[in-house]
Structure formats: structure tokens, C-alpha cells
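Board work, copied verbatim: ATP synthase complex subunit 8
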Amino acid sequence: MPQLNPNPWFLIMLASWLTFSFIIQPKLLSFTNTNTPSNKTPTTKTTPWTWPWT
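↓ predict structure ↓
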């Protein structure tokens, strides 16, 4: 069965993993968010939910 032979596929997987981790990932992590999250106080709802079947 050719699926069990790791000879060509292991090098392809290793090359793609190294390409992603050393070239693509630092480029993606260098992007900054345009909208930084702000500290908002959570609003609490004081009225309980009324279920129509109760």
C-alpha cells in the first residue's frame, strides 16, 4: 500500500511545516489589529426573561 510508505510524503510534510513556521507565520504575526479592543463595562440586564409557556 503506497499510503504506508513515508518516503516521499514525510519530506513534503516537513518542508511545508518548516515553510509555514519560519516564513509565513512570522509575517502573519507581524500584522497589528486596526481596531484595538476597548475596556467596556458589562451591562447587566435587570428584567428577567419571561417564557411564554410558564
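The radius of gyration is 26 Å.
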